[in-house]
User: Fold this.
Amino acid sequence: MDFSIDEPSRKLVNELDDRFLRGIASRAPVTDEVGAIPPENWREIAQSDYARLFHPASVGGLGADGVTQAMAMERLARACPSTFWSATMSVLVCAKLIHTYGDAEHHGRLLEPLLRFERLACFPVVENTSGSDASTYTTAVRRDADGYVITGEKSRITNATTADLGVVLARFEEHEYGWCYAFVDLRQDGVRTYRMHDLGLRGMPWGGIVFNRARIGVRDVVPVRLEEFPHGMAWGWLFISIAAIAIAQNALDASIAHARSHKAFGRPLIHMDRVQEAIAEMRTQIDAARLLAYRCAWHRAEGRLAQDLVGMLKPYATEMAVRATQHAVQIHGAWGLTHGYPVERMYRDAPMNVIGGFASNRLRELVAQDLGLPTPYQDFDWLKATGLDVDCAVHPGALLSAGR
Amino acid sequence: MEFAFDEPLLRMRELGRSAGYRYAAPSAQLRDNGAIWDERLFTSLARAGVAHAAIPLAYGGLGANVLETVAVLEGFGEGSGDTGLSLAVAVHGMLCALPIALLGTPQQRDRYLGAMASGTWLGALALAELDGGATASGHDVTATRFLDGWILEGEKADVINAPNAHHFLITARTSSDRRTAFVVDRDTAGLSVAPDPAQTAVRTCRMSRVKFSDCRVGPQAVLGTPGNAAAGLVPLLAALDRTCLLAPWLGILREVVRLGRETAARRFVLSRPLAHSQSVRAALVDGQTLVEAASGLLYRAAWQLDRSEPASRRDAAAAKLFLGRAVRDVTRTVAELCGTAADGLVRRAYRDSLLLTASGGGVEVLNVVIAGPAPSRTA
Assistant:
């Protein structure tokens, strides 16, 4: 066990930090305001090593260790969580899916433009009927005269309106696995997208995608077992957890700065015990979540699934960040709820991570299963025959009124 | 960074776990019922390496570093399920022995460490020494100069291991703002031990009130530099409190969550196992999550103590704040799952969690340490 950070990775992360703080962070308020990521952001990330950190040298990456990847992610997320979500969904989650499930020779053409940020990818899974219950999904890939077509609607998708490429989870009846990842070119006639407006992370392009017999190349449909799905998705849970940790850290820093400079009742706010308690709690829980995130990233980059650990991380980290932003609002008073102030944005951004990419409670069920507590469901009349479903009709009040 | 338990570290945790399981667990409830200190059990733990893991090899200990010691103690907590005995063992082998090893003179080291490693001499320490006097009452011990030595006056409450101890590690006020550390043998004239017959928590760790009345000690009883306890001993004890005393609780919490899972599968409410309730499953997942998250904070704090640069008091305090809360919340949740059937470890852990969260000055001290220095009122 070793908690030290080696010099090269510290240097690399600091360089990213400098770069992101100068540009992307300063544009974060505008990104939120107009609901779109400025083109300069993409240029600045493309000039950095960000995308290549996550991938092995064999596909053109730098093969950074897991903890360095996690630290780099936190830097971008602290600068602008909307940009972070959009970029990382593409260059981490989608790129991993492409080089894990695709073949290097044929799908290299898809990967390289993503790593250069010339193109953007999305990972459409969820549909209108349900967020995480795959049995309700209807989007399907079917054979056509000269290849495959996909039909169906995916909704609440990151990068839906800006992505060039979709790594789509779809039904694939012709194969024994029943499911596939389809690498779909989204710039074609059979694809229509629409924007959805969300509470937070407003800069992130969120929306729906309608496939109407959109064409897919024969080699761009990869059969996959549904049980495999968490392997790819766990990268998403990890990056979303890191987004939460970054927002919590920003909330903490803002709170400390405000509590040190702002005076009330003749003393700086930080001299108030309740403020110190909030700061101590935030700092402690952020540290706990961050160390757990590092541990998950380390296992993942060493090639282990670590599904239970990542499944525990996401509910903890994302709900922790919501509490942290609540503390920050309490410390900032009404400024924390005033449009245009950073804490107000954090307060809206934080809950997105709790629900995005599987809600907390869904993940808890997944972990429970790993811990040997499976999820049964039976139609059940909870209180029948116990007598606890009956209002008390024999009561002292009746006795009393009869006597009068 | 590297998050694996490597082979040596796994061996240490297993050493603690198997010793706890073999020697302590079978009699834990019995000793708790009667508030019993079992001398032979303690000697077995010394022989197995649990009680002396951190004592240097030259004195017959295992010479483990803090990281390894924490692994031993985590294992011991899990294997023994004995909150009190874990406390007694860690106070003896780590909080009493390490200050002597690190701050003591060669004579002090030679005199105490060998007999402490073998388990022949038991070391004692007042619970209040963990908070640097933050909770000290007006009766706290004072030391005044007498010839080349000192006269000790006053009393210490809740002295861990006192009824059976050979010697006591104490701090005493030597001037209005200075404290000095001493190691005082039990047979010193003027020192008396009054057992607490009504000890309610950590009952397998015996505690007493210790009185010093015209208790004269020579200069050889001073540990470190006179007047220097606040710079030497107190930060060391605080660091060991937040690592070595915390470690068994991580193991205990792991075991409590495991018992919670077992209970949820076995206990029926409304004609179905508790585990069929989504809320119960979520609570157990959250309990396991807190165990994993606390483990990162604890092992980081331990790892920092093995390095040459100063260990962050803030990081260690965060470990204690986090695990203290986790123990409080999770033992309560699991006790509720067990309902009226709560017994054994779950009941003891729930009861004793208060001592963990209250020791070292409690959250009042931890909050201030973690929130960090504030600018002065006029700044």
Summary: Chain B touches chain A through 51 residues (CB under 8 Å). Chain B has twelve helices and ten strands.
